[in-house]
Each structure stands twice: as C-alpha cells, then as structure tokens.
Please model this.
Amino acid sequence: MLKQTEGSRAVAEAVALCRPEVICAYPISPQTHIVEALGEMVKVGALTPCEFINVESEFAAMSVAIGASAAGARSYTATASQGLLFMAEAVFNASGLGLPIVMTVANRAIGAPINIWNDHSDALSQRDCGWIQLFAETNQEALDLHIQAFRLGEELSLPIMVCMDGFILTHAYERVDIPTQAQVDAYLPRYEPRQVLDPLEPVSIGAMVGPEAFSEVRYLAHAKQMQALERMPEYAAEFKSVFGRDSGGLTHTYRADDAETIVVAMGSVLGTIKDVVDEMRDDGHKVGVFGITCFRPFPLAQVCAGLRGAKRVIVLEKSLAIGIGGILASNVRLALNNLGIDIYTVVAGLGGRAITKTSLHKLFRDAEQAKLEATTFLDLDWKAVNRQLDREKAKRRSGPIAENLLRDLGVVAAKIG
Amino acid sequence: MSFQPVKFYQTGTFTVGNRLLEPEQRSVQADAARANALNSGHRACQGCGEALGARYAIDAAMAAADGQLVAANATGCLEVFSTPYPETSWQIPWIHSLFGNAAAVATGIAAAMKVKGRSDVRVIAQGGDGGTTDIGFGCLSGMFERNDDVLYICYDNEAYMNTGVQRSSATPPTARTATTMAVGSAPGNAFGQGKNVPAIAMAHNIPYVATATVAELRDLEDKVTRAMAMHGARYIHILVPCPLGWGAASHDTIRLARLAKETGLFPVFEAKHGEVTAVSKIRKQVPVEDYLKLQKRFAHLFGKEPRLDVIAHLQSNADRNIRKFGLLETA
Model:
C-alpha cells in the first residue's frame, strides 16, 4: 500500500510486519521514532505476541536482545551514535554467539564534540564486529532491507545492522510502498534457531574457548559472511518476485556502463550524486555511480567488476579513519588492487554538513582534470582550521578546540549548510 | 528441676540431620533425584564457596521449577571453572554472554519465554560480586526496576577472584587485595560507605531480597525455594568464602561463612517488598578477631603491633549491623 509517511514510521511498520517477539527500546536521536511507533503498536495490541522492553541503556538493549534471541525469540532493537558505542561489547558478543538480531542504526556522528546529525562514523566504527551491515539509500529501501535482514540473518544465524541516514531518512516524509502481512509472511519463514535455551534439550552457550579452537570459531564467522555474499542477491531476487520491486542486493550501479569516472558511495547521498551525474551526463561527461548496499561482508568481487572499466574512482564517504583517511575508500582500494585506476578519497558530510550539488559538480570536474588530491575533505573551512592551528602554536593553553572554532565562526547554533 | 530444651541441630548451626526429618522435609541436596545442575568435574579450587553455593542454589531452583529452568551467567570464576570448552558442568540450559549483562540477558530470556507462552520456564541470572555490584550493576538495577521475572543470585566472595584477587565494591574495609595493598599507614582496602547491594535491591521494592551464606545451606535452599515461588525481580546475595582470595584454609570455608554471620559482619536476613521480614539470629556474638585471624587478607592487622584501632572500627561495623537488624538472639 502506498503511503506518505516518515522514514522511521515506515521502518517501524516493516519491522512489525516481520512479527518480532522481543523489542528493546532505549532512546537516542535519531532512532527514537522507530521504537516509539513499535511500542505503541505493542501497547494497543496491533503487534502481538511481542514484549516491548524499556531498558536502562543501549548495553542493556543489546543484552536483552541477546537473551531473547538465545531463547528463540525474534529480537529487534534500534540505536545510533553513542548508543552503538555504548553497546559495543554486546554487539561483538551477539555476533560471536551467532544470534540473528536485527538492529536499525540511524546513522549519526560520534562525539566529542557532541553532534546529533548524520554521518556514518557510528556504524563504520563497528565494521569488524561480525554483523552484516546494510546501508539504505531511500526510505523504501530501508523498509525493504529490514524484511530481507530478518530472512538473511536468521538463515545464517548472524546479526544484521540496517543502517539508514539519521534525520535525512529517519525524519523525511516520503512515499513508500508498505507491503501486506501476507507478502511478508510468504517471504519470511518462522524463526527456527540453530541453538536455543530450552529445558527440554539443555545446552551451554558461551563457553570459554582457548587457542585450540578460537581461530576456527572466528573463521566460521567469516565463512558465514562469505555465504551472505551469495545469499543476498538470491534473497533480493526472491524479494522482487514477492514484492515486485528491486531492493537490497550487494551493490547498485547508475549510468556507469561507459563511465570514465565512477563515484562510489553509501546511503542517501547517492540520490544527490545521481542528480549531479544526470546533469553532468547532459553536458557530455562520462560519469556514473556505484552504490554499495552491503558494506559487511564487503563485496570485493562485485566492486572490482563494477569499477574496473573506469579511469578514475571517487569514493565519497561520510566517515573518517583519523590518522589514515577513508574507511570505505580503503575497502574499495582493496577491491581495485593493482588495476592502475586513480582512486580519490573524499570525506564529506561529517556531522551533518550538507553535501550540495554545487560542491559535487566542482569535485567531480576537478577529478576529471586530475586536480583533486588523493584525500580531500569536501568544503572544509581551511580558514577556521588554520586559525586554530595558529592559536595552538602561539599559546600553550589555547583552550577547548570546538568552542574556539564556534567562537571564530560566530555561530551559536548548528549550521549545516 | 531445670528444663533443657532438646534441639535437633548441631550446636551453633541450624543444620538439622536429615535422618531426623520426614522425607518431604529433607534437603534438596539429600534427594537422590536432585538435578546436579552444576555437575562434578568442574575446575573450581578446593574449598570453593561459590561452587558449593551455586550447587545448592541451582538444584533448589531446579526442584522448585520442576526442572524448567534457564540460567544466564556473568563472566567470572563460576563461568570459567564450569565451562572450559568443550566441556560443561551445567545440566541446565545455560548462557554466558558478558561480565556486566547477566541480569539483562536473563530479562531477554524471560521475555522470550513469556512471548512464547512458556510460563512454566523460570529464569535465573547469576554472577560474582564484581559482575553484580560493580560492572553489572546498571543492568541489575534496570532488571529490578522493571520487576522482570528473574531471580538474580550474587555469589559474593568479596573481590575479583578470577582475575587474581582485585578489589570490588564488595571488598570489606582493610582487606588486602592485589589492588588494595597491605602497605602504608592505612593498609588494605579503605573504610568507605560500602556498596550494600541487598539494601539497594530492597530500595527497588522488589518482591524478595535475601542474604545467605554457605554455612547454612538449608537456609539457602529454603530462600531459593521461597524466591522461586514468587514472580517478579528477586535477589539473593550469598556470602561464599574464597580460600585463594581470602588466604584461608580450604577446610575453613564453611567455618568462615558461619563466623561472618556470627560476628555480625554479614547480616543474614529476608525482605519482602523493601521491608525486612526475617533475620537469622546470632546465638552468641563472636568477636571480629576470630573471623579476621583465619584470613591472610587481614594478617596486617595482627602483626607485631596489632592495629587495635582498625579492629575496633571493624567491630563497630559488626555491632551496628547487629543493632540495625536485631541479630542477637534474646535468651
């Protein structure tokens, strides 16, 4: 059914259609609307049987989900930013135990300085946590990926993060097609756990494992993620046959067939990039887009196949590995090893900084003319940066960095443009 | 003619000989059909109070739950000595997730059982004092506050024993640990307010809170059985001496647990909905020295120049417990 609704609401409805049995809720912007909507559905009896638990922290949220999932219940929670970091120990634990929890991450920056706006620092900080990580481009895709996530995660006994851009998607009202319960039931079978806490068949879960078997347990986790690379396209195809639309899969290309320049990105910024590419195509530029939906496991072969025909690749990412540069870019480089393609890392949109079409036009043209540095910080205010660096040179007690910058810029509230 | 009441238990204990009891009154542990939930073959140290306490507590819970029991275990000695891969001593469905989340994992299990209509399955969470009073405290308080249907059992050996005897918030004042060294003008752990988790549990107004020791195992079984008859958040805090960490002889585990109670240092009581409803009386108060001297962790108080001031301070703590809980048996 087509509906004009908020991204969070669309995700909540999709999750509800998946018949979750235990939902853990702890508030953190920008994911709150999702669990609020789910809580209401449980309370009015629209989503039943389901336990909605208000926990005291994100660490508890993931821990309750671990217990519920180990006891055989389909378990769901949502978080973002500091919340994801606060639950990090349990995040690794859930994947180590092989529990197919599904969690929405409403992507948001990590402090300090505290910042509630969107970038991908939170999810990418957990890139090696053993969870499958999917990134939605649109609200429709966010909705669809949740349905596919329960299917894939439960099949492989692996937890899945569905990442959607905070505010840009979570709070945007868009038209989405909400599937029927019958469609979701046809696609998503009942959860049959591989391991379950059941007095009829007692097992110990979570034993201490020493050097004699630890590598093997870890390898099996890796092997399962490799299996996910095969399953995701299959499940996306099956999804299309039931729901009638393309959604999910590992990667997507847009006008990239004959492209000399291909822009790689994840999440909602792909929309802006596609608009710019359309305009540049009209001007005769051979540019295309390569979107990555599945960041973990990282589809090395698909990325290589999709990009190997290009002369240059621009990886535009909302994340920064401080001390080295790009995170997504490092992964893309691995896929394009020794192919002789020029690869540019562009760090953009941190902490909600708008990524504008104007900036992207210039950026892509600079790349075409080989005027781009290997690592570029889009729209960085060099004046503000240098002023702070000078201040630190001049004075030992130069004061708190963020506050100095805000004073220099003369802004009292967040400026995102 | 004087009258001497006949008491069918050992002097100084409430341990009644099973032979004298009707079968239905005998201990769970005396029953050939006991669950042996924590089976033999585990790697606990000789004289481990925690292994003993866990065995009695979980078997009593199994009996009360008619075998329908699931346990979540915090990281710690109990977890490590019971389940080194690929072996396990647990005869019940058991999960270890993390150090600080046993209460929350148990909440999740209870929620799953509820949603699946398995109201017959009961849920226990268990951990040591570190996993309960320190790192797991947030999850514990959350579980209490929501009144989740979980019995949480803390096996308190008063320090982080698994990592090599470091101080926890349950370590008593003046005790030597690896991080509260017996040096300087105030050797051992500092005198502080202490973190009295049974009292904090009571402040959550949960249905049931009790303390127990491994010296009175029938009392422990009884309390577990009573707790299992209730629903909602329940908490039992068991003092379990640790020969290794306390620097005590393995054969003194029970004796130390008894002395902890009879000095008044560890009050044994029951509380319902935040109010104390019963206390285990002390027949004859034992001076704290008798308890302290058996343990090397307090040896620095009894050197060439005994720290009488410090011992007096500890004695005053014990006396305060006795007053507060009315622990002394009146003639």
